[in-house]
């Protein structure tokens, strides 16, 4: 009694998960909630979403605030990482597994069941084509066999009362394509879980000339004491090349405890150091369209430079399983960098100089003395031709140079890094503003994801599975040779679980070939 | 001949073909049908030429900026699939090609009256939205070999989905009987909304956008002066403020990255109609839209009679709907989702980031996955499945255009600015 009850409960649970209705409900729930997630900006400043809600529903600021509060509590402001959305995805996986298992025995039977010769009754029911050839079945047997073979089928031959029957099947395993596709979805989900559990996703804003041994993934507000502790840990990791074990030893604390703290503060030790040697934005000539963002990076391990690589947006750097992607850039606040100027006298070789504001320099071989008076990261001119800075980023970096000869000011003007026509001086010398180094940082996305290979494997399996599912089929073909006086009637019957017309075309070709081989004896 | 002339010819040909196909639907004269096919083929040929010429034009631009780049790389990087305009053109090209294949395979012209309007709508949208048609150099994020396969396969899939949308819609028209039936309400209301939006876009274009052309000239003049003065184009249209000698609201304008002045979509879309400043105008357009939807609902059976009298069976429509999706789904999964994920992994370091575009393509994927599985469900054949096919394409439209126009995210290159 007790056992029976139990069994029925398991059956009930099984049937619940095996139902396609559940799949439909899960599809609808994932789809519907995802729509909300694309409208509400995820992980955004609350004010942004408040504005959105006001615009969408025409409600007041107060109401919008409390509505957002409710949505926030329900997890909609970071919904793709909320417990219920992840639960939905897992439910989807469970449904997929059980649905597939539930149907597997039936499909497996179709795959494994060997093809049998058709009875006359069955021949009537299945779509068929016929033709009559001269000659006895024994004589024609070989020609028919070759034709079937040429159509790509290995056949079995059976002797029947009035002649022969050839039958064959192909692609019975293609019925499992659906399972391969389903498996691939599970692989991708598994890869994602491995990535979330064992991987790291963070960023590093690396100023030109600086070296870091950690990356960051900030996690909420910290108190003053916590912040100080965080700084101390970063400091220690910086001096140990991102070696947590060594850092724990130097702190005199347990490594596990230190790692827990690092996790709390969103610090990720790289296990090596990385330095940004330079960062540059290249623009398409004459426009403000960026052509390339490039960072020159150096990996340092054990105090030695081990890798040097320049990265651009679609070409990252990977070292020891950690990948650095070019993702943004910006200005380091209150930084003082070096102006790199390339000076070419009218007749002479170019010379590169590093200088600071108010530094003086001589054009080689002349008495002309230049002074670097001013700098603007983004120079523009107003209607009265007065210069002003229109942005904080280096959109149009320019230096103001003043030239004097024997104490007398000769001329002055702006030299813009992006516009070579501004580099020429009236006397025929050239002063190129090559770079303002040390004031920009390169924004690197830092990632370690051991699950990504499982995801890629899942993608390959999915491609294979979809190909089998949609472009291959389980085909069966039967050819009956029936003796009719001195002639032979040939009946071809065929089935395919997909794309039957393609198989029929093949059969037509086969028949056409056969009728020719006979020398025009068809009916 | 340059590419824009040829694009113009193909646009006119497709719109003419649409009119002829609809005439054919109404009068069933076979000569009219042949004329429709000929005009469509002419449009297709000139569009093919236009795409090839545009490719060579953008190839020339690419090697001008990147003289050191190899021949193959330059050809790949200059493929005309880089912004909303180019992708829409490619979508229309695939759609017409797919349609012509079906027309020849099934020897039936009646789908033409349902497929060419999609091409017509897309072409009208290009002009009504005023999206940039310029050949623009590639921004860093798009400089990848994945661009070509990802975008190409996505749009081939979108075209097959558009075909299934047409046949699904025809199936619904043919199979629904009563006005109270939910599938009848579904197809009439959906078509009504499509029609209403398109008509309103036309009204906005004439009433708001065209009068803005004189202002646009003023802004363009200011931009030119800016260029003469500073040797570069402004980053933002606001920088032109001091150069204007007439009172123009600069917020209505955008400046493209390559320096072209455009009237921004937000400044006129639905501004003469649904979002009109005058309450009467706004109320009137809402009422007119509802009236139009009502009219489609009330007189939808006329369409049914038109299609019904053609030699076209609902089984054939069902088959084409299924086949198009069976071809489009794997292509979309591989090219759109998987290649997209691999590219995102290379460019951004995340293969999936739930950005609105990704999420919406996943929603689309779910709808079509449901379509493919729905045959396993009891009672889910015929009309219900056709509704799913129609909804799938609505999800495609939103993935493609809605996300770009309404939502922000990483896929900003496809936007109108």
Description:
- The complex is a heterodimer of chains A (523) and B (417).
- With 523 residues, chain A is an alpha+beta fold.
- Chain A has four domains: 2-109, no CATH class; 120-171 and 473-517, Sirohaem synthase, central domain (Double Stranded RNA Binding Domain, 2-Layer Sandwich); 186-334 and 442-458, no CATH class; 338-437, no CATH class.
- Chain A has helices at 2-18, 20-39, 46-57, 61-73, 83-112, 120-125, 137-150, 177-198, 224-239, 244-251, 255-265, 452-471, 500-517; strands at 128-134, 156-160, 163-170, 200-207, 211-216, 267-283, 290-301, 304-311, 317-319, 322-331, 338-344, 351-355, 360-362, 368-376, 379-381, 387-389, 398-405, 408-416, 430-437, 440-448, 475-484, 487-496.
- In chain A, the strands form six sheets. A five-stranded antiparallel sheet of chain A has the order 1-22-21-3-2, with helices on one face. In chain A, strands 4-20-10-9 form a four-stranded antiparallel sheet. In chain A, strands 5-6-7-8 form a four-stranded antiparallel sheet.
- In chain A, a hairpin with a 6-residue loop joins strand 6 (267-283) and strand 7 (290-301).
- The radius of gyration of chain A is 38 Å and the shape is elongated.
- Chain B has a two-stranded antiparallel sheet with strand order 1-2.
- In chain B, helix 7 (182-209) packs across helix 9 (279-308).
- Chain B is mainly alpha-helical.
- In chain B, strand 1 and strand 2 form a beta hairpin.
- At the A-B interface, helix 2, strand 7, strand 10, strand 20 and helix 12 of A face helix 10 and helix 11 of B.
